[in-house]
User: Fold this.
Amino acid sequence: MIINNNLCDVCGTCVAVCPVDAIIVKEFVVTIDNDKCINCGKCLKVCPIRAISEENQ
Amino acid sequence: MIKIKDKYDVVVIGAGPSGSVAARFAAENGASVLILERDREPGIPVRCAEGVSHKGIEPFIDIDKRWIASTIDEARLHAPNGKHVDMFQNGTGYVLERRIFDTELCNLACKHGATLITKADATGIIFEDNKIQGVKYTHIGEKKTVKCNIVIGADGVESRVGRWAGIKTNVRLEDIDTCVQYTMANVDIKENRCEFYFGNEKCPGGYIWIFPKSNSTANIGLGIAGHLTDKKSPKEYLDEFVQERFPNASISYTVYGGVPTSTVLKETVKDNIMLVGDAARQVNPITGGGIVQGMIGGAFAGKVAADAVKKNDFSKKNLKTYEKKWNKALGANQRFMFEVKENFMGMDDSKFNNLVEMCSKIPQKNFTLKDLFKEAVKGDPKLIAQMAKSFVVSRLNLRFK
Ligand SMILES: Cc1cc2nc3c(=O)[nH]c(=O)nc-3n(C[C@H](O)[C@H](O)[C@H](O)COP(=O)(O)OP(=O)(O)OC[C@H]3O[C@@H](n4cnc5c(N)ncnc54)[C@H](O)[C@@H]3O)c2cc1C
Assistant:
């Protein structure tokens, strides 16, 4: 998963659904730890501004 | 520069309503308290429609015009077929200025002796000898640590504090509403009336709200259930709605955010740690209201934390008193609302239409939210039984001031 940080509003909704704690909000930037990420796609679905997409797209 | 000690009895992470109230009650009852807030001030950015009941906030803080945008005593429910029914609420409601409200709650905590650091981003928990002993944070880019006996995680929907301690807080896709809201100018509304729209076309698995902030401005937003976003994004749904209903309005502020709509978490405490507010998913799963729920959580947690300090007992067993108190006050209500939500979720629009139709037959002057739920659960004995339990809270008479 990749985050478009230009779009991201740092609302943290994605963090709440991540089953593996792969999403980190630090100093107003959201990042996804792709070593932990299991590509379940939940973050992508709940992002209110569609700032998250699958890597190979 | 304010002086920060090396160790506090309690460190609260997050200065939203739940964190500030927790800090205040811990401090007022004798604990030393540090509040860490990531943002540059409490209450900013506002990610909220700002609706509360007078009854809900009055136990915590003296009502002050400075943080009230408007006073509400009517609600209009719009069915998918365009019909509507008006409801006159049990009591007064307010649309807040949360920026000021949150700051005031935090000021109250500081007045009772808590210390606040803003721009302080908690990054982890210090475990030593298999025990939580403090919090790691960065303050304006600089790495710091602070020791404590109790961590209170009040870090909102984006909470990670629970996860750091091994508490499962992640929610199902179905149990989060993904929201967009515009604060709009030049809207044609009635200042004392909230409005709600339901239906799978306009807003699947959630609702649209209009919360007036004056006679021509309002918070207008919606939440979509997390698993129902494939067709359109929340923003697309909202844009369609406002273009139709408020073609001449302007957007002065945009909010994105998530509302947890899960049932009660299995666990909100462990040794040396408690979660409150959105972090503990203490939100009404139907309305999405979490301000008062979080404040009640904060009040119980703060008091129990101070008591633990006096007893020098920070075990899970002792801290569980908080969880029990919260459950007694609001647990049944949240569980009931969750069941109702689960029922609504599969409902097609004709049922919403019927519900509004039925409600419109109730004499308007007496029609309340409770009547709405009575109609909604009709014919379902399990839900009727749960409903009876869930409204007990209104008789509990919580007093915190
Ligand atoms: C669009 C929308 C509309 C809503 N409308 C309503 C409504 O009308 N009425 C209602 O009652 N509720 C509403 N809610 C819900 C309500 O906003 C929340 O339930 C409420 O804010 C929860 O309070 P809290 O103190 O638990 O968390 P928050 O208010 O979210 O506060 C958490 C705080 O923790 C801070 N934080 C997070 N992580 C860290 C960290 N690592 N270190 C330091 N600080 C951190 C954040 O910056 C934030 O200040 C709405 C929510 C949304 C998204």
